[in-house]
Amino acid sequence: MKKALVSALALMMASPAVAERGSDGELRVLYWQAASVLNPYLSTGAKDVDPASMVLEPLALVGNDGALIPVLAAEIPSIENGGISEDFTTVTWRLKPGVTWSDGTPLTAADVAFTADYCMAPGFGCAVLAEFEGIKTVEAVDDRTVRIHYGAPKYPPLQAFVGGRTPILQKAQFEPCLGEAGASCTRQNFGPIGTGPFRVTSFEPGNVSTFEANPHYRDPAKPAFATVTIKGGGDAMAAARAVLETGEFDFAWNLQLAPDIVAPMEAAGKGKLVGSFGSMVERIELNQTDPSPALGKERSTLAHPHPFLTDPAVRRALSMAIDRPILAELAYGPAGKPTCTIVPVPLDFTSGRDDCLKQDIQGANRLLDEAGWLPGPDGVRQKDGVPLRLVFQTTVNAVRQDVQSLVKQWWSEIGVATDLKTIDGTVFFGGDAGNPDSRARFLADAQMFTDAFYLPDPASFLEEFVCSRVPNDENQWQGNNSVRFCDPDFDARMAALNQTGAARERHRIAKEMTDMLTADGHVVLPLIHRGMIGAHANSLAGILPNGWEGSLWNIADWSRAE
Amino acid sequence: MTETRRQHDLSVTETVEASSVAAGITPGLPPDDPLHAGGETRSQWRDVWRQFRSHRGAMVALVLFVSTILFVLVGPYLWTIDPTYVDIRARNSGFSVAHPLGTDQLGRDMLARLMAGGRVSIAVGLTAMIIAITLGSLIGLVSGYFRRMDAPLMRLTELFLALPLLPLLLLMVTLFREPLSQSFGPAMGTFILIVSAIGATSWMQAARIVRGDVLGLKEREFILAAKSIGTPAHRMILRHVLPNVLSPIMVAATLGIATAIITESALSFLGLGFPPDFPTWGRLLYDAVDQMVMYPWRVILPGLFISLTVLCVNYIGDGLRDAMDPRIRGR
Hints:
The complex is a heterodimer.
Chain A: H1 2-14, E1 26-31, H2 46-52, E2 60-62, E3 68-70, E4 90-94, H3 109-120, E5 135-142, E6 145-150, H4 171-174, H5 186-190, E7 198-203, E8 208-213, E9 227-232, H6 236-244, E10 251-252, H7 259-267, E11 271-286, H8 312-320, H9 324-332, E12 336-338, H10 361-370, E13 374-375, E14 381-383, E15 386-387, E16 389-395, H11 398-413, E17 417-423, H12 425-428, E18 446-451, H13 459-462, H14 488-497, H15 503-517, E19 524-537, E20 540-541, E21 559-560
Parallel strand pairs in A: 1-9, 1-10, 16-17, 16-18
Antiparallel strand pairs in A: 2-3, 4-6, 5-6, 7-8, 8-9, 10-19, 11-18, 11-19, 12-19, 13-14, 14-15, 20-21
Chain B: H1 2-23, H2 44-53, H3 56-78, H4 110-145, H5 147-162, H6 165-184, H7 186-200, H8 204-218, H9 221-228, H10 233-269, H11 281-289, H12 296-324
């Protein structure tokens, strides 16, 4: 809890001197992917959640250091203050006094309870249902107290209503939208009433949305801006130009561009880049099952282990051949740091193994020699007639294609032949069961993408790698364990983690599990710890990076500097 | 005797001069004994070539096109750097002895990449064009010549014209990429896929043009004459109709090459084309667009090659059309 206090203090200190509400005029923000809805329960994309976070607020936010910051809650529940029950089956939140919605009505515990019912209503298809997993009921004890009952002990207990993806909705407004009606409630989904610093004045899906300062916001001095315009469309390149070169916009989001492109733009002196490092890690997954087309319907299923990627020596050699610092420098610049783990934050959960950072082609060659993989006549290593030849797929993206070419070359230096394949991003991340090119279907030997988790405790993220989450025909290829890692030892630790409350013990187990996947097992090869890069005009003050929340998370504190 | 002979000669000269002015042919009647008339024999194609040579733009274009083809075919044997070899230390280098056309953001040699890329792009352009033209002319001829086939074939053409190209290509790639890569290898499989995808989606214009011309031709006297002596349909099409619609087909074909090269680059850009380590001119162009401001040559060079090829092919087509049209030839 000391941590929470520290980050709250940091927040207060970072806020600029007291200004008047609405005194700084218009703020122009560019999101090159436009929002399609302002209700995070319908869409978890950052393009939708970020604008919504200006209007809708959760009970608590995650700070940049991973500690929780109370927003609508008076304090963060803990065992010490009685908010979390000793047996980890209930969580009691107390709301801040005197908070009102932007229409002037007071915020009550009934709104919080309603929001949970709204997301968990059958037939709705809540986009963040996983955050509500294990909740039996949410009960409004009195106007300012709400109690979450879990059916069984829940670790970590603080999950729902933490972070901008699960904000509180107004019961009076969303009551007609329960269940199947949810997706068709256009008026509500496009113009939610919130407690945040701004309220929606107009919203055009896929284009422009405008906001104005919320007259009922709890801090009378905030926000400093009277109106906010969020323009959507274009691409990252145009967005960077609009802020850094022409100065048409004050802020642009998610600029994944090669460093040698943005550096000269920043040198023009109109704006600055800010990077916030959350849990995003670019990784290569090595398929543990055989994707060979000869297997027909049983391709990439647990019935057929991979012919050579199940050999730990091969996986380790593939990892050793990659020069991660060069990748970070060439392709990501300020937006990425080389990493050896898929849980880079919070530091308590990071195992700190960094032996992968040094490229070792010779060592990798020696390792393969010792394991019996010897170069064939064409230079490709083989053993028992199985050549080390793999298909390496990723999404269409200039930076990723550069990384693909580099990795292919390094792997060729250790006698591994690689065929590259690129897939359109929407297809690759698409969830359609009949899609042969999706990440979950994984009809290739290696694939590269970025994944992240949103709560500082990585338990639910690590749970993606248990055996039962392997995508297969029965679950419509929907599981998250796309690498098809299946180890009873890992599953046992997961079970233990789910029954452990003590923080230190949780850290230890989570680190062991991460290492089984990465530093020891080399099933997942972490490459780059990625930051979310935004650009803002020099005249904009108050921007604080936060890797856990959206770029607009503290927009109430933003102001126009002289 | 002498008088009559002189009269005859005079009248012959008059006729020849009178007719030659209108017809634009060389003065002189056919020799009485054509088999032993002497002199060189003249075939149709020799005439076409002679006419083609007089079209200056077409000749320049032909020379440029042939040198481009030599550049991409023979070049890689002289300049042996691997176009996919990544040399990080040499990245973003300008024109130098080691890399005459510089290197890209990963230090891959631009000259080698342009050669390798040209091979693919020109091959895709030519092959897709041949497929589209063959399909288009066939459908155009059949629907123009056989009245009964006209309506169904033209409705089919309209159906294809109305199909949204991109979703169709997406579907084709999803369905056929895997099986084709299995049987022909990833590069050849993609080549076949792209070429047939472009070919199968760009034959409609040619079909419509050809049909229109055939409909017009069918009403002409020489067709009627041929019909009246009982020429069968296939010979009619091959001997009388097809040669007369060759010039619009040629024009459509040259334009088709250009479109095919550009469509291929768009497909590569969307990730539906060749694998990323497989350079094509279109991909080189798209890859370089982000760094356009700092390294303009990386955009200009592949752009130049694409435009040059397209322009050359258009000029050659123009010259060929003139040369093959008997009404223009000789003027």
